[in-house]
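thought: user wants a sequence for this fold. calling inverse folding tool.
action: design(structure=
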């Protein structure tokens, strides 16, 4: 367990990646009480420096002794590295908040979105999982409705930005867009098809059941975070040519009747949510407006007239912030409360 202190030694593992960079920025913006920040990445990044609070901090590579003296480590270095290094960090007395898929469905590891299930942090054993980006923003919007009317079923279609894949994907979208506008040949390295001016109904690997891994993550993680295995979830995850900010069309069926106005009222009082819903004035959440901001934005709230107790809504959030870095830092903030 984390010992109470005035200031903490914090590490970011995977510091040079898109999410790692965002973690460093969020720690600084939120004035996390840091005594010392240590940054880790792969061997090829060793010796680079990154800025934090006006200082240049060197990037180190990991070894068995790296986590001695570190209180909290925020990991965003992929599942393979997390599988190796998170247990080593935990054994060193460090609490790991891991952004990869490695530990999310482990029954011994809490999967936490602070606005939804912060009490689950009490049973961590040194490793805490940060959920999938698309799951995080959805459950922030679902939880207040579930508490009010009990959700029976969720049908979600996502429209996910390329930054969810990483910096190389962002570079590929930019390059393909430039090449198209200049009538040059399009090259695909990150995605199996052109992403510029296109939509791919394919995120992560396809599984035997016809779903992708990303879709099954949303299905399984939602039940674990909400603490209710009876909620039925189906998902279609789609990659769109947007740099930053995931959007989701969410259809829910509730046990108890709830009106769109009641949903607006409930969500407007819920932590971490901004209701942005005046379609008659063309006001609804957009990824370009969510980019770089912390809230989960909800709009297009309306009744699903095809069923008795149904609500449709449109949910947008910055996938690098609330979908990853911000949620990890909020978990760390809960730990030190």
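)
observation: tool returned 337 residues.
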């Amino acid at each position: 367990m984390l010992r109470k202190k005035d200031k903490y030694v914090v590490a970011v593992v995977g510091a040079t990646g898109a999410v790692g960079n965002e973690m460093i920025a969020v720690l600084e913006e939120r004035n996390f009480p840091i005594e010392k920040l240590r940054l880790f990445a792969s061997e090829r990044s060793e010796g680079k420096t990154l800025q934090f609070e006006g200082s240049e901090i060197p990037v180190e590579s990991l070894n068995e002794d790296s986590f001695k003296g570190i209180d909290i480590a925020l990991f965003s270095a992929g599942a393979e590295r997390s599988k190796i290094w998170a247990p080593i960090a935990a054994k060193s007395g460090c609490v790991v908040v891991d952004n990869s898929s490695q530990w999310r469905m482990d029954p011994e590891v809490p999967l936490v979105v602070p606005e939804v299930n912060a009490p689950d942090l009490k049973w961590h054993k040194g490793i805490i999982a940060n959920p999938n980006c698309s799951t995080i923003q959805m459950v922030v919007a679902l939880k207040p409705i579930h508490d009010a009317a009990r959700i029976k079923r969720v049908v979600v279609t996502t429209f996910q930005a390329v930054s969810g894949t990483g910096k190389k994907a962002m570079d590929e979208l930019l390059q393909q867009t430039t090449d198209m506008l200049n009538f040059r040949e399009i090259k695909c390295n990150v995605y199996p098809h052109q992403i510029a001016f296109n939509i791919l109904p394919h995120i992560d690997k396809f599984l035997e059941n016809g779903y992708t891994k990303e879709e099954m993550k949303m299905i399984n993680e939602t039940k674990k975070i909400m603490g209710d295995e009876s909620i039925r979830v189906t998902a279609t995850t789609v990659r769109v040519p947007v740099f930053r900010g995931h959007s989701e069309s969410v259809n829910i069926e509730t046990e108890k009747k709830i009106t769109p106005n009641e949903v607006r009222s409930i969500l407007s009082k819920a932590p971490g949510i901004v209701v942005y819903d005046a379609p008659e004035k063309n006001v609804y959440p957009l990824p370009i407006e969510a980019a770089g901001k912390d809230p989960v934005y909800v709009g297009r709230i309306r009744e699903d007239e095809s069923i008795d107790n149904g609500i449709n809504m449109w949910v947008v959030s910055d996938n690098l912030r609330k979908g990853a870095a911000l949620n990890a830092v909020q978990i760390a903030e809960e730990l030190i409360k």
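thought: summarizing for user.
answer: Here is the designed sequence. The longest strand covers residues 151-160.
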